[in-house]
Amino acid sequence: MAGKIKKIIRYFVNALSILIVSVSVVLMISVLFSTGGNIPNVMGYSLLRVLTESMNPQIPADSLIIVHREEAGEIQEGDIISFYSTDPALDGMINTHRVTRIEATEEQNYKIYTKGDANETEDAYPTDQDHLIGKVVWSSYLSGKIVRLVSNPLVFIPIIIAPLLLIMIYHIRQVVHTTKEISAEQEEAYQEAILKIYQNKKKKQEKKEQDETEKKDCE
């Protein structure tokens, strides 16, 4: 019984491992190869990479940042936010700049003015709720460099995808093997139960015949 429980536990652990690896692959691909305007979002958090030096020295170029989705009314002066630029020259590109001031509008919206720490002037166009992605809650220059390295298909496929696929294949084989073992044990237990029922029935029949024989002898 203990061995059977261990095998069942191993089955669920392997299945969970496959699920985690699969989700990791999907998330990694969505982060590395997502197109502009299609920002990955997991439970309100997005992962982005800064491409320019406009936020030096706090967030250097190539830094990886985590952006939390928030409403414009929750943003405060001094926050660092990511947004789709409304500057026609930037054609909707994503900017990550610091909030310098906020103005409320009559339409119950907000105009959020921003500026890169390394820039001398404020951004020419403010952003609003419709163009806001969220507030930066974490950044890492080293992580960004690693992501840039693995985003190269020549590195990503042999170093990341191939090992993950091998792990998935290994766990799938383990799950199949464990399932077969459990099925075999269940079949064996079922056969033993049938045999026991048959033996008990046979013993009852033999006893019944013996009793009838003894009764005849007594007569």
Keywords summarizing the entry:
single chain, 6-stranded antiparallel sheet, 219 residues, elongated, 19% strand, 6 strands, Umud Fragment, subunit A, alpha+beta, 3 helices, 2 domains
What does this structure look like?
The protein is built from three helices and six strands. The chain is α+β, with helices and mostly antiparallel strands and 219 residues long. A hairpin with a 5-residue loop joins strand 4 and strand 5. Helix 1 packs antiparallel against helix 3. The chain starts with a helix and ends with a helix.
Helix-strand blueprint:
Layout: H1 2-33, E1 45-49, E2 64-68, E3 80-84, E4 94-104, E5 110-115, E6 132-140, H2 141-150, H3 153-218
Antiparallel strand pairs: 1-2, 2-6, 3-4, 3-6, 4-5
- Please count the beta strands (DSSP E, at least 2 residues each): 6
Tally of discrete structural domains? 2
Describe the sheet with the most strands.
6 strands, antiparallel
Structural class: alpha+beta
CATH topology of the largest domain, what is it called?
Umud Fragment, subunit A
- Which regions contain 5 or more consecutive residues with pLDDT less than 50? none
Could you give a short description of this structure?
The chain has 219 residues and is α+β, with helices and mostly antiparallel strands. The chain has three helices and six strands, in the order H-E-E-E-E-E-E-H-H. The protein has a six-stranded antiparallel β-sheet.
